């Protein structure tokens, strides 16, 4: 080393704290440059412990419009490249979620077949169950929690099946432009059971399976209904209240935060963020875009306001990078939504059973 001082100088600058001044991250791409752990390794001894696990769900054959969300996980990771865990102090909260009690890792993507939805969703359920059943790094909170990078919205169903094992039935805070509680007969047409399991019916199915409490709520809804009355009646029966997109204009972000907290008070909560809750101006790269949505800033303000809620799992879904622009607008937004979900999970630890 002594004879090659330029290499020594390079090595000295290679601390993780300096990468952002050095030109960018190095090594393989993970969410927010977090450590990659082979969470699905067959031997438990080989797996580093973690408290919060990021996992990708490359599945998009439950979508009713534009496919492409199978490439969402790596799109979101690409959008997160600027986040350096050691230098992620929030201007708003004064905290750095990466440097508190929780060890946060990226498990890579779930191994899913592209050719059979039924099998792929079983594979995803198994992936969730394996990752959430390993003993956490912090023994005070033995059940680790998962944030999923979708994938179309069908991928939330396996996540809810897995959180049920450790935390029981949950309230779902569902950010979306669509209600996604559609009766499979309505969305799927009653053609086959297979066709009825899709990104617009998964909340109906989760309700039927007893995974969702009657204290759930949608936020940002604006897409048209298929039936004048039945869809909303059915939505209520599935356990949901609705905050529409335009309600934000009337009650503001704090009004939305208050409603979400009031509705889910005293329950454990799963937060699912369909990126189409944002206006296509802020998230063009999605399967079923709807105009008239929220801005990225409004969504982040609302998410960061949900402190104190016991978040047992979460996801960002429907990011379809092929429709993104050269500035990666959608992927940047989705990466920051994940960052907010991490903040909530670290801010309020939750005791689950292994
Ligand atoms: Mn959705």
Automatic annotation (TrEMBL):
InterPro entries: Ureohydrolase, Ureohydrolase_dom_sf, Ureohydrolase_Mn_BS. Keywords: Hydrolase, Manganese, Metal-binding, Polyamine biosynthesis, Spermidine biosynthesis. One of its GO terms (molecular function) is agmatinase activity. GO terms for biological process: putrescine biosynthetic process from arginine, via agmatine; spermidine biosynthetic process. It holds the Pfam family Arginase. Binds 2 manganese ions per subunit. Mn(2+) binds at residues 153, 176, 178, 180, 274, 276. Its cofactor is Mn(2+). Belongs to the arginase family. This is Agmatinase 1. It comes from Hortaea werneckii EXF-2000.
